Amino acid sequence: MCSPYPKVACAATVESIQPVGTDVFSLVLVRQFTPVSTCGDRGIIPEPIPGQFFMLRARPSGVLLGRPISVYCYDDRTITFLILKKGKGTSELCSVSPGQQVDIIGPIGNCFLRPDSSEIEEVIKTAITPRTEESAELSVAVIGGGIGVAPVAGFALSLPPGTFDFYASFRTGTYGLDGIAAIAKNVIITTEDGSFGDRGMLSDVFNPELYDLVYACGPTPMLKYIQSACKNASRHPLVYLSLEQHMACGAGACLGCTIQTIHGNKRCCVDGPVFIAAEVIL
Ligand SMILES: Cc1cc2nc3c(=O)[nH]c(=O)nc-3n(C[C@H](O)[C@H](O)[C@H](O)COP(=O)(O)OP(=O)(O)OC[C@H]3O[C@@H](n4cnc5c(N)ncnc54)[C@H](O)[C@@H]3O)c2cc1C
Ligand code: FES
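^ thats the input. predicted complex w/ flavin-adenine dinucleotide below
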């Protein structure tokens, strides 16, 4: 629904790679790419829309396929990703050097439906459990858990200042929050070890009764909690979840990223990664 731009499959040059947290790195790629064998043409990596992702693979690489990584932020010249080292693919991406090349395909997937979009009221009215209170302005929460902060922080930074609360939950320390405090109404941070913000988890600080619209990305247990807490809230917020599934092709062909929804099976890569919480079976 929201990719008006063509996808690219090319090799982009690493501008910088910096550690920003425990096993988390900020990878900055140059958007302008020069002719390479995979694409054969000069061009620019298209602007993504918040919520979209790219398939990334270091060059050279010991893995066959790219790994799905959300866009954290971008400007005219560069595009930035936050990457948590998990296995071989992400470890390779976190070990690149400036000047090295990274295979990149995208942008892929749908995006978050913005609170200021013309369609949002319609979606709320036709939601499985529609909002019970009519308020002039939608009350919005944006929530990131761990590396799931990357896509929601990029989305939050695109919203008008002072129109949302931002929640971020980590095991220890924080990352990916640049610029958020300057534009969020409130920033609420939890860490499990108490190293930053409130000690605890999202469930200790989040009140779903305060919101009409919730956007979230993070580990599945956190998303399950948000799905259930919002379903049971009398205010019935509309909730968008960005899901992280194993992916192979990233193109809708292999069905490796299939999830279950009340409308049947969906492919997380091309039908998502953003889904309405009340429609997915986690
Ligand atoms: C739409 C989308 C956006 C994502 N955005 C980001 C991002 O911005 N930054 C980031 O660091 N990661 C992101 N991920 C997760 C990232 O793609 C996986 O961590 C990565 O594919 C793991 O590859 P690997 O080769 O390093 O590890 P593997 O060797 O493939 O796996 C290592 C461990 O991670 C688990 N794992 C593998 N893939 C996933 C997955 N997709 N979700 C959860 N666990 C997984 C495996 O079960 C295994 O335990 C995103 C995933 C999706 C689907
Ligand atoms: S990753 Fe192949 S269909 Fe989604």
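Residues 8-108 form a domain with the Elongation Factor Tu (Ef-tu); domain 3 fold (CATH 2.40.30.10).
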